[in-house]
Amino acid sequence: MRRLTWFNATSLTLGFAFxxxxxxxxxxxxxNASKLVTVWAGFSxxxxxxxxxxxxxxxxxxxxxxxxxxxxxxxxxLGTMAAYVMVRGGRFFGRTLFSGMIYAPLVMPEVITGLSLxxxxxxxxxxxxxxxxVLAHTTFSMCYVSVVVSSRLVSFDRSIEEAALDLGCTPxxxxxxxxxxxxxxxxxxxxxxxxxxxxxxxVIASFTAGPSATTLPIKIFSSVRLGVSPEINALxxxxxxxxxxxxxxxxxxxxxxxxxxxxxxxxxxxS
Length: 271
Hints:
By secondary structure, this protein is mainly α. It has one domain: MetI-like (MetI-like fold), CATH 1.10.3720.10. Helix content is 78%, strand content 0%. It has helices at residues 6-29, 46-52, 55-88, 95-107, 110-123, 130-154, 158-166, 171-182, 184-200, 203-208, 216-224, 230-270. The protein is globular, with a radius of gyration of 23 Å. It starts with 5 loop residues before the first helix and ends with a helix.
């Protein structure tokens, strides 16, 4: 085992400080009693109460939550299907084109994606709103789910699936009963990644959102342009807490599922 040198310790300290010190400062100043976000005037939770009474932020948060849940679920289903086709589909006509279209949003600038979707919605006469944001977020987040799930399918032991087929399962039953439970941690990770990308997106949502649908990043960005308010600090602190709890919970659930699958595989080998 390599010892931790002073250079590595200093690099880690500076790196983590650069990443997390601004968040810590934001959390501290969310409890500031002053309206000035850079001047400490005592501890107070009044801005959390003001945030809960701000209808504009609450409506934007509700729209963001609806869009995130819908788009991440749809992206997970489509991304898992695309990953299964790419890994298990073998060689078929148009495979290269299909793979390129799946992975294109990974390298495509968000401005280009948002503008192209805007022109598409205008050309077909589709009014911009929650539905168009869901379609846009599904389009660019599906490829991330596909990458995560396909990496798990590549290392998947197909002999287990073949054993289920030999025992009389149909291909769909084998996928539902054997393959899907084993790749479930990757599917969950893909869903969480898609939800995070939807929650964080500003550029694509600004192109595809209409007057009746404003997401939280758009609302925060428009508010920050007029000056940072303590309510935004309180809102950011709540979002950091929700994300932290979600990441920890997902990590614990994934570890338990992986450990249970390892025990099941060991029992199957011994039997």
